[in-house]
Amino acid sequence: MDLSFLGIASNPITVFTQADKTAYLQNPEDIDGGIRELVDAINAIPVFFSMSACQGFLIEEERDDHCPETYVDFYVIDEQYQLAKLLLGSLASKFNASIDCKVVYEADFEMTAADEIVPNGMVKLRHSIELYELPADLMKSTYQELVDHVRRFGAAVI
C-alpha cells in the first residue's frame, strides 16, 4: 500500500518485543501495592506488559497519597493486538459501567537528555483498564473479580 499521502513510508506503530517487556518491568517496586494483583495478572500474560498503573481510590486510607484514578495501562508484544482486543472486549462486556477499557494512540519519542524528548514519528498503542469508584465493599469484590477474569484469560492464552 502506498502510504506516501500520509507522510509516512511504513507502518508507524511501534512494535514492542520481549526485551522491551524486560526493560519496563525491571523495577517492580514502582507498582502501587493496592493494584499489584491486577498488574501481575496482566504481566503474567506473555504478550502483555504494564507500563503505568495507580491504585487511586482502591484503598480508602491511602487514596490521598495517589492519583485520583485507578488504572493499569499496558503494551502488547509482537503485534498481538487481537489478544488485547479480546481481553478489553471481554472486560467491558462483563463489567459494564464499572470500568472503562480503551486503546490510546500516543506519539513515541526518543529521550535525548534527562529533560528533553524528540518525537520519532512512531506511535505506541497504549491499552488501558480504568476502574470507576464504587462503594467500598462493591469496589473490593469488583476488583477481585477483575483480577480473576484477567488471570483466567491469561491461563486460556497460555
Describe this structure in words.
The chain is globular, with a radius of gyration of 17 Å. It has a single domain, classed as Aspartate Aminotransferase, domain 1. It contains four helices and four strands, in the order ααββαββα. Strand 3 and strand 4 form a beta hairpin. Strands 1-2-4-3 form a four-stranded antiparallel beta sheet. With 158 residues, the chain is an alpha+beta fold.
From the 3D structure, determine the CATH topology.
Answer: Aspartate Aminotransferase, domain 1
Element string (H = helix, E = strand): HHEEHEEH
Strand tally is 4
Question: What is the gyration radius calculated from CA atoms?
Answer: 17 Å
Largest sheet: 4 strands, antiparallel
**What is the level 1 CATH name?**
Alpha Beta
Number of domains: 1
Structural class determined from secondary elements:
alpha+beta
Present the secondary structure layout.
Elements: H1 18-24, H2 36-43, E1 48-54, E2 70-76, H3 81-95, E3 99-113, E4 116-131, H4 136-157
Antiparallel strand pairs: 1-2, 2-4, 3-4
Helix pairs in contact: 2-4, 3-4
In short:
The protein is of the alpha+beta class and 158 residues long. Helices cover 33% and strands 28% of the residues.
